[in-house]
Amino acid sequence: MNNCINDNSNLIGRRVLVTGAGGFLGSHVVDLLEQQGVKKVHGVMRSQCDLRDTSAVRELFEAFDPEVVIHIAAAQGGVAWQQANQCTAFLDNAAMMEALVAASIEKNVIRFVFTASSICYPAKANIPYQEAALWDGPPEPAHWGYAHAKRGGIALLQSAHQQHGLGASVVMPANMYGPRARFEPDRSNVVAATIRRCVEARDQGQDSITCWGSGRAIREFLYVMDAAEGVIRAASCLEEPQPVNLGTGVETTISQLVESVAEVVGFKGQILWDTDRPEGAPRVCMDITQLQKQLNWSPPTSLIEGLRATVDWFESSKG
User: Catalytic positions, please?
Assistant: First the structure.
């Protein structure tokens, strides 16, 4: 049953537990819930509870008695981290999910929201990714442990829904960017890395910047505050754990991204491309038909608007 509404009134008055509250997406979800009038929000950070520990999770649920669980916490990193920590990524993410779902069943939670990832899609899936293709093949080998743990989490929720009637929803976020993102060189994604590079080049008076690849690779970028809104809408609207893509459906080449960042930052130098460097998959994008249909909504923030807000935050955070 889909009882989708245009606001979050299904959550008003509910006790909402958000994992990963100290992270990028989780912190925005907590803020937005509070801004929208949900007064009983309990954000859990890594330092407060080891979500891999079944006993610690049970104690957390006894203390807060959540009615809605939004699970965003994850053991993750960039491609290099995932390749080097395949087993850790699988075990840690699977353990968190198992502990949280078990506690949710015991406490009769009415809704469990799980943020999976577009990384779960098969390496050879047709683009744009459609939810029906999720199980049609294995994911990219570089993400094997992380992707399979996320897939396992989806399967666990579907089983819990079938056997125990646990209301649940699954969203598959696209590549996110925005305020509070990681900007460190070894942890940043392409948007944050490009912003940092352009700001530094502008401030240092450089004549050019050099970017990896050809610039022709295509990606989809989701503003983090839109992602937070999508997660909350899923918590309000969706009761069955059938994955729903959470993205824009807008394809942007890396060269278009770099040019847009340069414009926002005010870097007027030349943009060079090092084609000897890797650029990843040639095209990544998701079909958002189900998002629009089931949530009666699509992310409203354009790339240029989101970049302006992200650059403003980055500039202010430097001081």
Answer: 146
